[in-house]
TrEMBL record:
UniProt keywords, alphabetically: ATP-binding, DNA-binding, Nucleotide-binding
GO CC, one annotated term: MCM complex
PANTHER family: DNA HELICASE MCM9 (PTHR11630:SF48), DNA REPLICATION LICENSING FACTOR MCM FAMILY MEMBER (PTHR11630)
Protein name per the record: MCM C-terminal AAA(+) ATPase domain-containing protein
One of the record's GO molecular function terms: hydrolase activity
Species lineage: Eukaryota, Haptista, Haptophyta, Prymnesiophyceae, Isochrysidales
Stretches for region Disordered: 274-293
Keyword DNA-binding: yes
Annotated GO biological process: double-strand break repair via homologous recombination
């Protein structure tokens, strides 16, 4: 059985949260709104995303090796946390499970209502921009890569590296998958075997981004953070994770050990992926990921 190597991303968010801007800047992006696809055409999307083939009326299959980057608004007045993501989006669970990451971009300031400094700041920015008072854009930082260099780098690492997963990373990924399967609050649409496959794909993608031939524990830890962000609340890293307002850490090398230790402790494993508390003897179930490597 062929396991796909391309990752898919879905953005679910309120109007005005920048989904369209992200889509416009994504490469190889379909301009069609995902929820505008007709119901009887969605079966073809399932096959294109998972098997990366497309069955036609010519008794043949066409290769569809691609990544899907889609966005949609919640149904109704807004995202209801008391309902499943399938109900909120109107997308069936089999389709949702094919997305490796589902990020919620929710405007939390709407829920509180009233006036705030953030509302005033946004309004002033929009008015100044409309009146032409924003002034020239700031000079780019010399350390910031231009778009052309970033595109060339991504294209190179995607085609040049096929990282293998080291044992500590394997055990961390399997421990996280087992933890999610046992959690009562986890959506069933997100805890199928595809979650394990998604974690491996994302870890390999992070290793490529870091210009490495091996997936290390660091890659696995940050993939767990990304997957936790899909649920809007990090039970492992602690506290809420809002994809819309989260900022990049300015000192990632210094904060990584703290993040790593917190996640490993929540999973009950050490830095080598070994269980902290062995119960009843026997081997650890996460020794290998089998065909997912």
């Amino acid at each position: 059985m062929r396991v796909r190597g391309e990752s898919h991303l879905l953005l679910v968010g309120d109007a005005g949260t920048g989904k369209s801007a992200l889509l416009r800047h994504a490469a190889r992006l379909s301009p069609r709104s995902f929820d505008s696809i007709r119901e009887h055409d969605r079966g073809a999307i399932h096959e294109a995303m998972e098997q990366q083939t497309l069955s036609a009326g010519l008794v043949c299959k066409l290769r569809t090796k691609c990544s899907v980057f889609a966005a949609c608004n919640p149904k109704g007045k807004g995202y209801d946390h008391d309902r499943s993501i399938s109900v909120n989006t109107g997308l069936p669970s089999p389709l949702l499970s094919r997305f490796d990451v589902v990020l919620l971009l929710l405007d939390k300031s709407r829920a509180g209502g009233g006036r705030s400094e953030e509302h005033d700041r946004d309004a002033q920015h929009i008015l100044r921009e409309a009146c032409g008072e924003e002034g020239p854009p700031p000079e780019p930082d010399a350390a910031t890569w231009p778009l052309e260099k970033m595109r060339a780098y991504v294209e190179f690492v995607r085609g040049s590296f096929r990282p293998s997963v080291t044992p500590p990373a394997q055990r961390a990924i399997v421990a996280y998958y087992s933890h999610q399967r046992q959690a009562d609050t986890t959506s069933e649409a997100r805890t199928t075997i595809r979650l394990l496959e998604s974690a491996v794909r994302l870890a390999q993608a992070h290793a490529r981004l870091m210009f490495r031939e091996e997936v290390t524990l660091l890659d696995a830890i940050y993939v767990i953070v990304v997957l936790e962000s899909s649920t809007l609340h990090s039970r492992l890293a602690g506290g809420s994770i809002c994809a819309l307002t989260s900022m990049f850490d300015e000192t990632p090398d210094a904060t990584y050990p703290l993040l790593r230790d917190k996640i490993l402790d929540s999973l009950g494993i050490d830095a080598e992926g070994r269980p902290l508390r062995q119960e009843g003897g026997g081997g650890y179930p996460g020794e290998r990921l089998g065909g997912y490597m």
